[in-house]
């Protein structure tokens, strides 16, 4: 009877129950009541995906107290690799995608710290919008408050909308209509009128804050529909056996990360290296303007070319300087859409003056230096399955894996 009373205090909804069981009673911030239940004595769930069941919300409502100051990161070194996935998208945690057990094992065997990270979902986005903010665990017991950037929800005049669209038409390769549907600018500067945009940003920032607070030298964030084309794997020398569209060798993921990390170490000015690329709105820089290739060396990995404002977030490697900025600027309090947030930090002509104003108020001064592997400046080393299957006009044998989580199917 005593345990029944304790249980009703600890478990307030289904998510809380599943999370408590997945953590084994050792969830960050677990109450004394929950600890008395002694759930840690229960048999743990033996599955790679158990981490996806651990909710990261630090409370169902906004705490009255402000978030604690984030501690100074310990010097850990090394590379942290995240694969972001929604619990119900088991169709994407299969070979040859990055979240498959074989790929995760290959990356770990190569010495990388790999974590399958539960993606933030629509309910978190809705809670943040409804409450004004949402508290999320970001590293162990440490939590931070996530909220939209200052000015995101303000009303917009026709003059301001025209100013933003004119900036896009003047400075970008594609017209404003390609970026924002006419009459939809107000919603776009809030969440890009896309239901998953805010949740996606929350997922990526949680991962980056985790790595930053963990003291890692670099952080590589993959989305679960990342794939390596067999042609890229052959050109890079990671694989010489796969003949289809996709490389099926788990070791190619380890080789990809090893070369990306070494490239970044050779370019100390670099803040982020895009291993996958999408739609570009600004011209790239001069070939190999960040790092020149050494064609005379047998160990040459190629050069790095600066990129401009680019949509894409499925495979990005961040340096320690970028991780420090994530913490210093408290990007968790400046949430927008992932495909717009990060490009506004490095784009030559960022178009949303509201977001830039919020960043500068937070102390942002330095435009990031961001590049991609030279010779692969169009799509990079890692492709997004959704785009790849669209080009091939079939599912490459992976069924629903290529279907967006924002689709009617999911």
What does the main sheet amount to?
Answer: 7 strands, mixed
Proportion of beta-strand residues: 5-15%
Q: H/E element string?
A: HHHEHEHEEHHHHEEHHEEEHHHEEH
Shape: globular
Radius of gyration: 22 Å
* Strand segment tally: 11
Quickly count the helices: 15
Spatial gap, N to C terminus: 41 Å
The residue-averaged pLDDT reads: 87
Q: Give the helix level as a range of percent.
A: 25-40%
Q: Helix- and strand-based class?
A: alpha/beta
Spatial strand sequence of the major β-sheet = 2-1-5-9-7-10-8
Question: How is this structure best described in words?
Answer:
The chain has 410 residues and is α/β, with parallel strands linked by helices. The chain is built from 15 helices and 11 strands. The chain has a 7-stranded mixed beta sheet with strand order 2-1-5-9-7-10-8, with helices on both faces. It starts with a helix and ends in an 18-residue tail after the last helix.
Concise description?
With about 400 residues, the chain is of the alpha/beta class.
Give keywords.
alpha/beta, 11 strands, globular
Write the layout of secondary structure elements.
Blueprint: H1 2-10, H2 14-23, H3 32-36, E1 79-85, H4 101-109, E2 113-118, H5 122-131, E3 134-139, E4 142-146, H6 158-171, H7 176-179, H8 185-191, H9 197-213, E5 218-223, E6 226-227, H10 230-236, H11 251-266, E7 272-274, E8 304-306, E9 315-318, H12 320-328, H13 338-346, H14 353-361, E10 370-373, E11 383-384, H15 385-392
Parallel strand pairs: 1-2, 1-5, 7-10
Antiparallel strand pairs: 3-4, 5-9, 6-11, 7-9, 8-10
Helix pairs in contact: 4-11, 9-12
């Amino acid at each position: 009877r005593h345990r029944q009373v304790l249980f009703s205090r600890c478990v307030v909804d289904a998510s809380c129950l599943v999370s408590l069981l997945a953590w084994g009673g050792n969830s960050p911030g677990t109450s004394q009541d929950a600890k008395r239940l002694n759930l840690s004595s229960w048999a743990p769930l033996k599955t790679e995906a158990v981490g996806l069941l651990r909710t990261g919300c630090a409370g169902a409502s906004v705490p009255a107290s402000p978030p604690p100051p984030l501690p100074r990161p310990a010097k850990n070194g090394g590379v942290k690799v995240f694969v972001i996935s929604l619990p119900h998208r088991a169709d994407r945690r299969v070979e040859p995608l990055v979240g498959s057990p074989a790929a995760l094992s290959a990356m770990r065997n190569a010495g990388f710290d790999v974590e399958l990270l539960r993606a933030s979902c629509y309910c978190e986005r809705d809670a943040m919008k409804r409450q004004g903010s949402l508290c999320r665990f970001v590293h162990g017991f440490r939590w931070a408050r996530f909220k939209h950037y200052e000015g995101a929800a303000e009303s917009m005049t026709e003059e301001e909308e025209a100013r933003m669209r004119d900036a896009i038409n003047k400075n970008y390769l594609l017209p404003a209509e390609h970026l924002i549907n006419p009459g939809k600018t107000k919603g776009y500067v809030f969440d890009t009128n896309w239901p998953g945009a805010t949740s996606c940003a929350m997922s990526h920032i949680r991962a980056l804050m985790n790595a930053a607070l963990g003291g890692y030298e670099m952080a590589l964030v993959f989305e679960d529909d990342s794939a390596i084309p067999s042609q890229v794997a052959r050109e890079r020398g990671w694989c010489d056996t796969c003949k289809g569209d996709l490389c099926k060798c788990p070791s190619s993921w380890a080789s990809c990360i090893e070369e990306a990390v070494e490239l970044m170490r050779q370019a100390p000015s670099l803040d982020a290296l895009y291993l996958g690329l999408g739609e570009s709105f600004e011209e790239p820089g001069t070939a190999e303007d960040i790092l020149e290739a050494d064609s005379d060396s047998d160990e040459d990995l190629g050069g790095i070319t600066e990129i401009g404002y680019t949509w894409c977030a499925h495979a990005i490697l961040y340096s320690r300087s970028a991780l420090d900025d994530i913490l210093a600027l408290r990007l968790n309090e400046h949430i927008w859409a992932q495909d717009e947030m990060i490009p506004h930090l490095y784009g030559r002509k960022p178009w949303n003056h509201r977001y830039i104003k919020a960043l500068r108020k937070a102390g942002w001064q330095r435009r990031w230096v961001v590049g991609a592997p030279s010779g692969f400046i169009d799509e990079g080393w890692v492709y997004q399955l959704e785009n790849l299957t669209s080009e091939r006009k079939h599912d490459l044998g992976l069924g629903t894996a290529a279907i967006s989580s924002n689709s009617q199917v999911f």
